From TrEMBL:
<dbReference type="Pfam" id="PF18052">
    <property type="entry name" value="Rx_N"/>
</dbReference>
<dbReference type="InterPro" id="IPR058922">
    <property type="entry name" value="WHD_DRP"/>
</dbReference>
<feature type="domain" description="Disease resistance protein winged helix">
    <location>
        <begin position="415"/>
        <end position="485"/>
    </location>
</feature>
<dbReference type="Pfam" id="PF13855">
    <property type="entry name" value="LRR_8"/>
</dbReference>
<dbReference type="InterPro" id="IPR001611">
    <property type="entry name" value="Leu-rich_rpt"/>
</dbReference>
<protein>
    <submittedName>
        <fullName>Putative P-loop containing nucleoside triphosphate hydrolase, leucine-rich repeat domain, L</fullName>
    </submittedName>
</protein>
<keyword id="KW-0547">Nucleotide-binding</keyword>
<feature type="domain" description="R13L1/DRL21-like LRR repeat region">
    <location>
        <begin position="674"/>
        <end position="799"/>
    </location>
</feature>
<dbReference type="InterPro" id="IPR041118">
    <property type="entry name" value="Rx_N"/>
</dbReference>
<dbReference type="GO" id="GO:0051707">
    <property type="term" value="P:response to other organism"/>
</dbReference>
<dbReference type="GO" id="GO:0043531">
    <property type="term" value="F:ADP binding"/>
</dbReference>
<keyword id="KW-0378">Hydrolase</keyword>
<dbReference type="Pfam" id="PF23559">
    <property type="entry name" value="WHD_DRP"/>
</dbReference>
<dbReference type="InterPro" id="IPR042197">
    <property type="entry name" value="Apaf_helical"/>
</dbReference>
<keyword id="KW-0611">Plant defense</keyword>
<dbReference type="GO" id="GO:0006952">
    <property type="term" value="P:defense response"/>
</dbReference>
<dbReference type="InterPro" id="IPR036388">
    <property type="entry name" value="WH-like_DNA-bd_sf"/>
</dbReference>
Length: 1143
């Protein structure tokens, strides 16, 4: 088939157009001679496309000819779209036919004249017709498996660069107490991002830095959005839309911690925003590092980089290693001497760029013939370079060898800005909307073809997985690849911001625009004048008051003029309403209203008969869909995730093309509505059914026909929170009738109150189930999950009808080994659970969690679990059990469980927490000696009669230590020996008076002391002032006769956070103790009832936050309204008193 053969960009466009013209509906209405001429002309031009596409790079006139041809093809496509729409709307009205055909035939004649003119110019440009014999299928080889984003085995020639950066990052040289910045500078495709990823993923970074984050800095960004992205990357809340509170949150997140931040792909245009952002990191972040990757040396200068690494091109031998890895794919190079000889010549032409070598290597792996390799070597495309074009010729060569349909799909991606992260399913739906997946494979759905195409583009590295992703599987394009896509789309696809509207032409078909308060309305007004626009992707810029709101009037103007629009995305634009004029967009196939504030959709949306995808994610104010929703007869994907829909519209079951239906809500008035699911057997992926309490009749439930939905892989079935259960067997019968298909992989059942779980939760009915979650169910017996042969994760919570777990949990297993696939087992908040009789087995079990099961007394856990890695048992105070044995346990956490015996500790242990258990005897002290790789240790001795033996001298790897309730006057070990100790927490040690000889460890960063009065009395002997790594100090509960704190030179100048809590005798904050704290960022003072004043004159300029709570004598003095001393702290950005922000 032509669409699978490497060919010209427009070839597949021609094929789709010819197929549409050949349809019976079209030919029957118009003059047959005219249509035949049109077909002949299109076919003759189609034969010239391969030659024209090769020559366009050397001949600007040929390129212009192709652009004119593409423009006319779009006009033919628009005419055909209008024809389809008119036929669909007027098919039952006969009297319109004559006027309709006359008008359309006139337009066809004009188009035919234009196309004939173009065809006649073939001799002028010396264009020759296609030679089919030389064409080669791109799919003639097996598709190579896609690799992860960073595979160190595929990286060559950067070992020295990597070590140089790591040595710099690990160095603790003084940088005036500010964050250090290293910039990796090099041209596109040189491997800057890959090198940064190698460093970022190195194990030494994990140990040296407490927090790490990777952020891609897009060419167009706002400082608020970038700050929120950084916060999310540090797994910190990113709420709010104002810069100052976000910066405060960022400082709180990072204070007292060494962090590593990578800012990838920084452009010079970001100067002001980046300078503003970087100010929030300084001063006070000594030890933290930032890696910047950029093409521009000036960026490194602007950001005041402490160190620059100019990245050089790779040596030939390293390029050859990369090429062999991808082109030969495990084959023995020496068995293909001719390939080797040709390959080395090809690699030499790649100019030392690793991206170019990798991309071309992957392409040639799929065209593994000597003839094809020779053809690539000898092609003139190596010398192609347009004016001002920085695109590597190898990338263009890889593109040139793609099939026509893949070229169009790839070029469409030029609508995305650089660094834009797009989800896999999102892109496929956009391709569908543009018609790029039509007629490419009649035996496959468009979605299946889209998946194949996307995999093809990923396999040659045109698409890459991002380092971190916040959603489903997603991809990004390298900047050079993005440039290539834009080059091929040329003026047909534009990105618009500010004054770039001047680039709009009549040929523009696809637009991505950024909207802000200044330019938003003007940009949309210009866009509304693009008559032939087919795609509009709107990206908001700014947050809160800085965010441009698209008014109803602007929408009305857009929707009344852009009649050829196929794709419209207002994702994240916070629309308050959707104009009723949306119904004018008769050709619209894709509509994304994610995060809109719409309360209802206009009825006119039901006129969009061609709409295939409607995305309403997180439209939390939306409670209903229009009553005529069933008229959207082409709808294939409906995403209602995060909406508050109360019921489904009538006749939704008639939308039998639906493949995605994220939520189905059974309405309160009509439980039989669930039968609307009956005919929707094309549903795929995830389906959530809620409101099941409204289903009364099991026949209605059976009518949902879940058993025939073989493509649904994830099923959620939920009852409402306020459901009042009637114990009449109805729920059990209804649920039994909701029998899912045997292909189901993940199942969640919420708040089901039937007497028993349905019989279909067994292996013979659900052999492929890998995850089962039960929450809030009322059954008194467990389902026999052991019969589920593929089950990897089982979680049960809030199922308060269960008291004993015995044989029914295991069923009648035909195997000798129980739970042979299970890897994760969770029990949470099982309030009435009392006993668990558990047989041996679980050969693959890695994690066990038992949390808040207050009545659980006996649990006969398996004593040998060969794969167990994590065991956490919390808030099970009556539980009597012994810990299973396992040679691979790395984390053991026992909290508030007084009767659990810890008989021995594995040498593999890295994290141990025995906390608030009130043991009368502590038996693990001696057993800890052998655990030389322990990193985190939490021990509570409050219940012990005598202080146990505790020898931790061999813990060179200990990073965090927490001790509660130690009874003796000193700890039984010397803390200074723990050279890697970062955090020390001491609680409730009333007899503890001093640290042993040597004091505190030199690398200590966090020190937390609560209710240790005798120890605090000796604070001047700790040597805190010499601890240059100390960033955070928390002190709580009574000082012994201390009225003033801190003393002069008590605390080190590196301190960033100081917290003082529950000090009833503290009267004065000592000015002398603050004078040298030049790094202090946060000051927290809680519950100091007689404190009279703050150290106003000594507060450092670095301070950004003061929090005061339950300090009645100073509250009134420092409040903004009427506080006599407010002026002394008013310069501090964030002041909070008793929970009220003063600014």
């Amino acid at each position: 088939m032509a669409e699978l053969i490497a060919g010209a960009f427009l070839s597949s466009f021609f094929q789709v157009t010819l197929d549409r013209i050949a349809s019976r509906d079209f030919k029957d209405l118009f003059n047959k001679k005219l249509i035949n001429k049109l077909e002949i002309t299109l076919n003759s031009i189609n034969q010239l496309l391969d030659d024209a596409e090769t020559k366009k790079y050397q001949n600007q006139n040929v390129k212009n000819w192709l652009d004119r041809l593409k423009h006319k093809l779009y006009e033919v496509d628009q005419l055909l779209d209008e024809f389809d729409t008119h036929v669909q709307r007027k098919s039952k009205v006969q009297h319109f036919i004559s006027a309709f055909t006359n008008r359309f035939e006139s337009r066809i004649k004009d188009l035919l004249d234009n196309l004939n003119t173009l065809a006649e110019q073939k001799d002028v440009f010396r264009l020759t017709e296609r030679s089919y014999e030389s064409a080669v299928s791109l799919q003639s080889s097996k598709r190579s498996p896609t690799a992860s984003l960073v595979d160190e085995s595929c990286i060559y020639g950067r070992e020295g660069d990597k070590e140089e950066i790591i040595n710099y990052l690990l160095s603790d040289k003084d940088n005036n107490n500010q964050v250090s910045i290293i910039s990796i500078v090099g041209m596109g495709g040189m491997g800057k991002t890959t090198l940064a990823q190698l460093v970022y993923n190195d194990q030494r970074m994990e140990k040296h830095f407490e927090l790490k984050a990777w952020v891609h800095v897009s060419k167009s960004f706002d400082v608020v959005g970038l700050t929120k992205t950084i916060l999310r990357s540090f797994h910190s809340p990113a709420d709010g839309e104002d810069f100052d509170p976000l910066i405060c949150q960022l400082q709180k997140t990072l204070t007292g911690k060494k962090c590593l931040l990578v800012l990838d792909d920084v452009w010079n245009g970001n100067k002001e925003c980046l300078e503003r952002l970087l100010l929030s990191f300084n001063p006070g972040f000594s030890g933290s590092k930032i890696i910047v990757t950029t093409r521009d040396k000036h960026v490194a200068f602007v950001m005041k980089s402490d160190h620059q690494l100019p990245l050089k091109k790779l040596e030939k031998k390293d390029c050859w290693s990369i090429f062999v890895k991808h082109a030969f794919q495990g084959k023995n190079v020496f068995e293909y001497p001719n390939h080797e000889s040709i390959g080395k010549k090809i690699v030499e032409k790649c100019g030392g760029l690793p991206l170019a070598v990798k991309t071309l290597g992957k392409l040639l792996q799929r065209k593994f013939s000597q003839a094809e390799w020779s053809k690539i070597l000898e092609t003139n495309m190596w010398h192609v370079r347009e004016d001002g074009d920085e695109i590597n010729s190898v990338l263009r060569l890889s593109y040139h060898n793609l099939p026509s349909n893949l070229k169009r799909c790839f070029a469409y991606c030029s609508i995305f800005p650089k660094g834009y992260e797009f989800e896999k399913d999102e892109l496929i739906k956009l391709w569908m909307a543009e018609g790029l997946l039509k007629c490419c494979g009649r035996d496959k759905s468009e979605e299946e073809l889209g998946n194949e195409f996307l995999d093809d583009l990923e396999s040659i590295s045109f698409f890459q997985e991002p380092l971190y992703s916040w959603g489903d599987k997603s991809f990004v394009m390298h900047d050079l690849v993005n440039d290539l896509a834009k080059s091929e789309s040329h003026e047909f696809c534009l990105q618009i911001e500010g004054d770039s509207v001047q680039n709009i032409s009549e040929r523009t078909r696809h637009v991505c625009c950024y909207l802000d308060l200044k330019d938003g309305a003007g940009i949309l007004n210009h866009i509304s004048k693009i008559k032939g626009l087919r795609s509009l992707l709107v990206l908001p810029r700014g947050y809160g008051k800085e965010c441009f709101m698209i008014s109803n009037n602007l929408q009305r103007d857009l929707f009344s003029k852009l009649k050829y629009l196929r794709m419209l995305s207002f994702c994240g634009c916070k629309l308050r309403e959707l104009s009723g004029e949306i119904g004018n967009l008769k050709l619209l196939r894709y509509l994304n209203l994610t995060e809109s504030l719409i309360e209802r959709l206009p009825d006119s949306i039901c006129k969009l008969y061609k709409l295939e995808t409607l995305i309403l994610k997180r439209c939390f104010k939306l409670t209903e869909l229009p009553s005529d929703f069933y008229k959207l007869v082409s709808l294939r994907h409906l995403n209602l995730e995060g909406c508050n829909i109360k019921k489904m519209p009538k006749q939704i079951g008639s939308l039998n093309h639906l493949q995605t239906l994220s939520h189905f809500v059974v309405g309160e008035e009509n439980g039989s509505n669930i039968q609307q699911l009956g005919n929707l057997n094309c549903l795929q992926g995830k389906l959530c059914i809620s409101g099941l309490e409204h289903v009364i009749n099991p026949k209605d439930a059976a009518g949902a026909n879940l058993k025939d939905k073989k493509h649904v892989e994830e099923l959620n079935m939920e009852y409402s929170d306020n459901f009042k259960f009637n114990n009449n067997g109805r729920e059990s019968n209804v649920f039994e009738a909701l029998h899912p298909n045997s292909n189901l992989k993940r199942l969640y059942i919420g708040r089901y109150q039937g007497n028993n779980f349905p019989n279909w939760i067994t292996g013979c009915h659900l052999p492929n189930l890998v995850s089962l979650q039960l929450k809030g169910c009322g059954c008194s017996h467990m389902p026999p999950i052991e019969q589920l042969p593929s089950l990897k994760e089982f979680s049960i919570s809030n199922c308060n009808g269960i008291k004993i777990i015995t044989e029914e949990f295991y069923g009648n297993s035909s195997t000798n080994v129980s739970f042979r696939s299970l890897e994760v087992l969770k029990f949470e908040e099982m309030n009435n659970w009392e006993e668990w009789f558990c047989p041996e087995g679980f050969p693959l079990l890695k994690e066990i969690y038992i949390w808040n099961c207050p009545k659980l007394k006996r649990a006969l856990l398996p004593q040998h679990l060969p794969s167990i890695q994590k065991l956490k048992i919390c808030d099970c105070n009556k539980l009597e059990a012994s810990i299973p044995k396992g040679d691979r346990i790395i984390e053991l956490n026992i909290q508030r469980c007084d009767r659990i015996l810890v008989n021995e500790l594995p040498i593999s242990l890295k994290k141990l927490s025995l906390w608030e258990n009130r043991y009368t005897e502590f038996s693990v002290g001696q057993k800890l000696v052998n655990n030389t790789i322990l990193e985190e240790l939490k021990l509570d001795f409050r219940g012990c009669v005598n202080c146990p033996s505790l020898d931790l001298r061999c813990y060179n790897s200990l990073w965090r230590l927490s001790i509660k309730g130690w009874h003796s006057s000193s700890l039984p070990f010397s803390l200074h020996l723990f050279t890697k100790l970062h955090s020390l927490y001491l609680y409730d040690c009333p007899e503890l008076e001093w640290f042993q000889m040597g004091g505190l460890p030199s690398n200590l960063a966090d020190l937390y002391i609560e209710n240790c009065p005798k120890l605090i009395a000796s604070r001047k002997e700790w040597g805190l002032f010499q601890l240059n790594s100390l960033k955070s100090f928390f002190i709580s509960n009574e000082f012994e006769n201390v009225e003033s704190f801190p003393e002069k030179n008590l605390l080190p100048p590196t301190l960033q956070t100081l917290c003082i809590n529950d000090c009833s005798k503290l009267r004065i904050m000592n000015n002398k103790g603050f004078l040298h704290l030049k790094s202090l960022i946060e000051l927290h003072i809680w519950n100091c009832p007689i404190l009279e004043r703050l150290p106003e004159e000594a507060l450092p300029n670095t301070l950004t936050s003061i929090e005061i709570s339950d300090c009645p004598l100073i509250k009134g003095k420092y409040e903004k309204e009427g506080g006599e001393n407010w002026h002394t702290i008013s310069h501090i950005p964030h002041v909070t008193i008793d929970g009220i922000e003063q600014k």
